[in-house]
Amino acid sequence: MTEHAPALDERTEAAARIAESRAANDRLTDSLTDLWDELVAASAGSNADDEHDPEGATIAFERERLTDSLTRARTDRIALDHALVRLAEGTYWTCNSCGGPIPPARLAARPTTATCIGCAGRR
């Protein structure tokens, strides 16, 4: 297993990138949750047959779209939390698949990645 011994400033930068991504993810999740609440409130008590409305998207379609977006945001948050754990354990720069190094540039572009480019390409 090849180890990358990151400098303190690399650790600090990685932690800052992850924290920034988590904050952005929290804002997105809050915004999507607010949209969900508004959609539910707007459709409460409505008997409208929006499934056959030629004017636009159905409420069911909007709910599905918001559900998918919320699921993706929550999954991203879990990945960010796992990245923080790997950072704390000192394995952030090590590929989970082959044990080789993950280049700092890859981690800068994708802070949640846990695989090197080679292993990611073999998926």
Automatic annotation (TrEMBL):
Source domain of life: Bacteria
* ZnF (dksA C4-type) residues: 95-119
Output one GO MF annotation.
Answer: zinc ion binding
The record's section on Pfam families has: zf-dskA_traR
InterPro entries to which the protein is assigned, alphabetical: Znf_DskA_TraR (IPR000962), Znf_DskA_TraR_CS (IPR020458)
Domain called Zinc finger DksA/TraR C4-type: residue spans: 90-123
Q: What is this protein called?
A: TraR/DksA family transcriptional regulator
Q: Which of UniProt's keywords are assigned here?
A: Metal-binding, Zinc, Zinc-finger
